[in-house]
Input
Amino acid sequence: MVLLTACSSDNNSEENADKGEGNLGTKEVELATDTYLSNIGATHLVKLLLEEVGYDVTVTSTDVGIEFSGLADGSSDASVGLWLPTTHASYWEKYKDKLDKISMVTEKVELGLTVPSYMEDIDTIEDLANNKNNIGKKLDWTITGISPGAGEMKLTKNEVMPAYGLDENWELQSSSGPTMAAALTRAIDNKEPIVVTLWTPHWTFNKFDLKILKDPKNKYGDPDNVYSASRKGFKEDSPLAYKIIKAFRLTKKQNQNIMLNIQNGMSNEDAAKEFLKNNPDFKEKILSKAKGE
Output
């Protein structure tokens, strides 16, 4: 494996920042993430990669809106969890002039209203709107959601529900990612109906047989891609960190494996370490690419 080492000097002057592709620059890096396992797992994987070459990395987990504003005002350095062009569109439009989009991390991530596959008669969002087989009454007209600031929640409330007439009878109940997953797990354990806001990658798709309801009006839009982004100036301040993040790629299946280990009790960092242990070529490929740029 190619080993990347820091320059011997401890200062972070502009002179050191020009010493070449292997230079660390500013060693302290703060990564921002929201509170969802799909982004938490990826973020801790990047943390390990950056620490491998000598960076001191802090991970800050917060609400999506604060994540974006923190990147924009320089409170944090980078994120690997921006869902575009749809899910985080409102945040991107607000802050994009103060951010640098780096690269695509994961392609074709989906989101939508999701049910257990044993709900055979419910296949589309229109089935909910039409109260097929009295599904509204069975669920007390409630869709189990996640945190109210999440892009999917805003999209569901402001676009999807009005388009299908769900806003007339149905309620989108705010909770959190873990609370939603716990409710889904309980329902499946009891083979009861439930509708949740869900997305891929998510560990529940590894554990349960689920289906995302068809969206014939395409109000959730085409699948997003997940991107990395940074504050302005990060590329110059920590050049090798920027290159590693630019080289970072993670498939949905890889992410879901990390997420499932976290869900099963591993710490965020231990789950990332377990992934690197089981995928020894992953680290070498990213670090080699970063050095070669």
In short: Strands lie at 28-33, 56-61, 78-84, 99-109, 111-116, 142-144, 171-173, 196-199, 210-212, 224-231. Residues 37-52 form the longest helix (16 residues).
